[in-house]
Give the backbone structure.
Amino acid sequence: MSLIETNQHDNHAESKSSPLGGVRGGCISIKSPATVANLVCGFDILGMALNEPYDIMKLKLIDEPNVMIINKDNYNLPTEAEKNVAGVVLLEIIKHNNNSFGFEVEIEKRIKPGSGLGSSSASAAGAAVGANLLLNNQYNNDELVQFAMFGEKLASGVKHADNIAPCILGGVTLIRSIHPLDIVQLNSPSLFVTVVHPQIEVKTSDARQILRKEVLLKDAIKQWGNIAGLVAGFEKGDTGLIGRSLEDVIIEPVRSILIPGFDAIKSQSKEAGALGGGISGSGPSIFMLSEDETTAKKAEAIMQQTFTELEIEYKTYVTKIAEKGVQLIS
């Protein structure tokens, strides 16, 4: 029986082997990119990969059917496999192979946990892709996403793929369905992405709990139009349509109250020429899309000034949409 149910008709994410090539045995190093989930109006269904920041992971096969985790950073994440998002992914792969081997994994996190930039997804997706490379590309991309979602369930309590899919596949992805899994890779124009990560904490689980359980039909209709417009904008390379569609009438109005300075950053960045943007995942990071680097830098300056005035420490990035997801580096 197949590991997962997948849509076989037009699944752009499916492939029988990874373009990275198999490297059975030995030790490999990969980089796993940060991601922006939701893309404002696409709650749990849209996501994109970033060139920066990214995590570095080293994996190797071991004889014992267990997972050894070595942290190469100062975040003090659990080293017990059952409590680590990369660990639970690797345990599932071991179980799927009749406990015939195990893994040792070193993780250097450059994507800060709790940043809203897909830190848990980077670990989970990196573990899935890295393990698959060591196993001669035994699994296709849909199966890798399904494995990696075990890590997301540990992190947030929910199996969602809006960070996982772009982290593995790169670019911009649409999660049309989870059951059965149906991932669509979208065209991603060459846009600049400005990100600010204020050093405050917004837990994904908390950010989900405050959401409304029911939505007015008029709001749902507006949201559907924005999602369709955003997807069409990416497919057509229509930056004007992308900008008009980066509007959320359901999630963002609720979650933005958890992020000081959000409204000012969004309005001022758009006035400076940015196409638009919003909360990255559940926050607290904020992202803005721009057509050129000059505008992206203006958005960065606005972000820096806002959080400086609020006396909140922050980290900013000016980067681009990543064409590739998890990549082999050695």
Summary: Residues 4-23 have pLDDT under 50 and may be disordered.
